[in-house]
Amino acid sequence: MRLKSFFLVLLFASLFFSASGCATSQQQILSTDQSQVALRSIQSRAFDTTDKKLMMRSVINTLQDLDFLIQDSSLDLGTVTGQKFHGITTVKMSVTVKERNEKQLLVRANAQFGLKAVEDPKTYQDFFVALEKSIFLTAHQVD
Q1: Which residue ranges make up each domain of the chain?
Q2: Distance from first CA to last CA of the chain, Å, rounded?
Q3: Whole-angstrom Cα distance, residue 137 to residue 140?
Q4: I want to staple 104 with a disulfide (CB 3.0 to 4.6 A). Which of 53, 89, 100, 141 is the partner?
């Protein structure tokens, strides 16, 4: 009987700590300074192409040029995830490529510095400028 009550206490304790972790994550998500719509507009760009494979290759090249190590990529899902180390803190970036309409692709980048979402527009502007250069070079087969 004592063993059973020990496991019940252990179960409730683990549920309590996991629930408190979820609350912290929710607070971090909801605590952004800018509205989500404004942040999404900073993080997104439309490109006049339908070649998803070329765009994904360009995103990977761009992240590598910016010293990110590619963690995962999926052409089917249209996602690329990378990280780099900045001192003791990790910078993560996830990029999603999806069809916007029959003539365009929408690219959305989401950066995170440590546990905080990056809201600085310059970070995303720099990424998209580098991506545009990479698209040009990839399309013209320049290494």
Answers
A1: 1-31, 34-139
A2: 69
A3: 5
A4: 100
Q: What is the pTM of this model?
A: 0.71
Under 8 Å between Cβ of 86 and 113: yes
- DSSP lists the bridge partners of residue 86 as 89
Residue 63 and residue 95 in contact, taking contact as beta carbons nearer than 8 Å: yes
Task: Report, as an integer, the average pLDDT of 7-11.
Answer: 46
Written as one letter, the residue type at 7 is F
97-108 burial code (b ≥16 CB/10 A, e <16): beeeeeeebbbb
Distance CA 30, CA 141 (A): 43
Contact (CB, 8 A) for 105 and 55: yes
Place of tokens 């020990």: 6
Homologous superfamily (CATH) for 34-139: Kinase associated domain 1, KA1 (3.30.310.80)
